[in-house]
Amino acid sequence: MKAGGYAGCVLHIDLTRQEIEKQPLDMDTARKYLGGFGLNCKFSWDLLDPLVDPLSPENIVFMGMGPILGTGAPVSSKYSVLTKWPATGTISPGTAGGRFGINVKLAGYDQVIIKGKSRTPVYIRIDNEHVEICDASELWGRDTYEATDILWGKYGRDYAVLAMGTAGERMVNTTICLVDKCTSWGKGGLPAIMGSKNLKAIVARGSRKIPISEKGRFEKRKRQIIDRFLANPDRKRLIELGTMDGFGGWADLHGMSMNNWRGRFPTKEAYRLYSPEYYLKNIKAGRLSDPTCPVGCKDHIKIKKGEFSGTEAWVSSFYGRVVHMAARCQVGSYEKNVKAQEYFQRTGLCIHSFTALIDWALELYEMGIISKEEAGGQELRHDFETTMYLAQQATRNEGLGGILAQGFKKAIQDIGRGCEKYAVHIKGMEPLYDPRINRMSGPEFSQVVNPRGAHAPQGTITLYMSKDEPPEKFRDWLEDRGVPRDAISRIFERPGYFNIARMTPYGEDWVAFMNSVGMGCLRGRVDNSMKGEDWSEMYSAVTGFETSLTELREAARRNWNLLKTLNVVAGFSRKDDAFPERWFEPLETSDRGTMVLCDYFATPLSREDCSTLLDDYYDERGWDIKTGIPTSKTLLESGLEDVVDKLKAKKLIS
Fold it and tell me: Are 390 and 346 found together in one domain?
């Protein structure tokens, strides 16, 4: 029986040789690793040198489209990229929504693998079976919006466009690409890698149909999922507000650290400047959604009055971008916040990463480690003007802004003078969540152990922002998602308590699974309307591979073990899963008193306690507690015999 869901083809593009090759996808391999993120890990293990220079022609970009992507299943727009990132040196994934992955899949490709370096600027055009490398001279020097508009003008709006901005052309590390001028992809420097390869953009259009093995079964489950979304009493509000529905949680319950992790953005100030009511009246211009999302979390925003009237942008997760511009850079008004976002979106600067670097630099300036002369004669402050000044330098890859924009690891080397003491990062990537404010819940802990670095919550369940929720809610979610009973007994080792370190691997595996099959979303606004059995039913119905939730979890665990092992060979180990020193300092706030590092249940945590959390996490994962490296036993249980052989040959395991 021919498997459904998979297009059946791997597209190889060599920019150095200007060669395009299509190879059949091995279905045994596809079933073992599921697809998307999982196949990216497998191809990386086979083809990528983990010690490669991220900006060399030898670095490879792997793009994976999972088997449910393109079938029309609810929330099935996710696709994954994996490469070695220049900002961190890690080998790790990035996911995105939007139309790009769907069009690549419908064009007939499960995987796109890009290597080499073109002699001149190019873009790749994928139009069903027709694939070509095209001259990009008219696109070079254009921002993401301009490049996308030019390509749409040339080929039509039915093409999806993945484009980088001018910062990527100058190989700035703290950058992201945009899909169709909106969806961000590739935090950690995908544009820098593309710039190093002289690759400006990829345009894709697909019109094929993805085969579904059991159409009736698929449609029945699809209807059940959609009915749950439609029955959600909050659906209208979620669509109206998008991610700004989470504003109250940030402003009231959780908050965001400011002044380089030395304060908390005041609740009253958050409401004064950025209230949902002001957003609806003066900022929101429209709601966007991924093609199969029943809710929608993307925004068309437009400034309607004042100095920047008429400025507009298209952003995913608008709420998060508002928060970081507000707390880290303290840009002021909503209009200035949006104007700064528009500049970052156009040039390709990563709002999450570069705002953290600005915040760090301002403390260094305050401490006298960075002088006014080194800042180009500019007085540095937490304000809109400083933010734009440093962002413009970063885009040109010059001055202090250019130093910061290479990311924490390189900037620490370039600045020196003890600046690392004030740098809050994990594996070179800035945390999003402060566990002194939010406590050591899922997103806070997963930032430490994530092979990518302190990225968004890759190891959390959808209750991750639910401070003070009873442990039973977490148990219900884990049981629904097929976590084994013996694991649940270890997580909930006594009444009224759970061990977040032992819970985290099952959240990580769930994210790995969703990113492998191309269906699902971390946001509670989506995930809360779904059940664990939805995924096993959909995967089985689409592919024809009758697969239980337990088997899907085992495949996801295999993929995560392989991801970890790629980074082990690249030189990462337990020493890199480090809690930032500043987390152990008391946080003085203007409206919440003194806050200290605590677990979910508000019990203070010491360095020794955090070390024990790492022990528990590695033990639950089946990794060596001393090194943080997967053991031979664990890798063999995951069917990774070749990985064991390679690690033994390198003397990384016994």
Answer: yes
Residue 304 burial by Cβ neighbours in a 10 Å radius (0-12, 13-18, 19+): middle
Report how far residue 567's alpha carbon sits from residue 451's, in angstroms, rounded to the nearest whole number: 7
Q: Can you give the residue range of the structural domain that contains 82?
A: 9-205
Q: 435 with 579: CB under 8 angstroms?
A: no
DSSP H/E element including 313? strand 312-316
pLDDT tens digits for range 156-180: 999 999 999 999 999 999 999 999 9
Residues 317, 345 contacting (CB under 8 angstroms)? no
Residues 6+ apart with CB under 8 A from 174: 87, 189, 349, 350, 353, 354, 357, 394, 404, 405, 406, 407
Cα–Cα distance for residue pair 83/74, rounded to 1 Å: 28
Last residue in a domain, options 154, 189, 205? 205
Residue 110 zone, left/alpha/beta (φ > 0; ψ -120 to 50; rest) = alpha
End position of a domain, from candidates 396, 422, 448:
422
Do 416 and 440 share a domain, yes or no? no
Secondary structure string (H, E, C) spanning 545-602 = CCCCHHHHHHHHHHHHHHHHHHHHHCCCCHHHCCCCHHHHCCEECCCCCEECCEECCC
**Mean predicted lDDT score pLDDT of the chain:** 95
Q: How high is the pLDDT of residue 228?
A: 95
CATH code of residue 364 = 1.10.569.10
Q: 295 and 165, same structural domain?
A: no
CATH of the domain at 166: 3.60.9.10
Q: Which two tokens stand for residue 129?
A: 């079976």
Q: Residues 472, 583: one domain?
A: yes
Return the residue matching tokens 């979106």: 345
CB 132 within 8 A of CB 154: no
CATH (domain of 478): 1.10.599.10
Same domain, yes or no, for 358 and 239? yes
Contact of 527 with 477, CB cutoff 8 Å: no
Please indicate, yes or no, if residue 172 is contained in any of the structural domains.
Answer: yes
Residue 404, φ and ψ in degrees, nearest 5:
-65, -40
What is the spatial distance between Cα 534 and Cα 254, in angstroms, rounded to a whole number?
31
Distance CA 195, CA 77 (A): 26
The number of folded domains in the chain is: 3
Q: Are residues 255 and 163 in the same domain?
A: no
* Residue 463 pLDDT class (50, 70, 90 cuts): low
Confidence category of residue 621, pLDDT binned at 50, 70, 90 = very high
For the segment 344-392, what is each residue's pLDDT rounded down to a tens digit? 999 999 999 999 999 999 999 999 999 999 999 999 999 999 999 999 9
pLDDT for the residue 521? 83
528-565 per-position pLDDT tens digit = 889 999 999 999 999 999 999 999 999 999 999 999 99
Give the integer Cα–Cα distance in Å for 303 and 334: 9
Q: Assess contact for 12 and 21: CB atoms under 8 A.
A: yes
Q: What crossing angle do the helices spanning 549-569 and 641-649 adopt, rounded to 10°?
A: 20
* Residues 138, 98 within the same domain: yes
pLDDT tens digit string along 231-279?
A: 999 899 989 999 898 888 888 877 889 999 999 999 999 999 999 999 9
What is the pTM (predicted TM-score) of this model? 0.97
Is residue 413 located within the same domain as residue 442? no
Both structure tokens of 99? 């139309």
Distance of alpha carbon 445 from alpha carbon 502, whole angstroms = 11
Whole-number pLDDT of residue 461 = 60
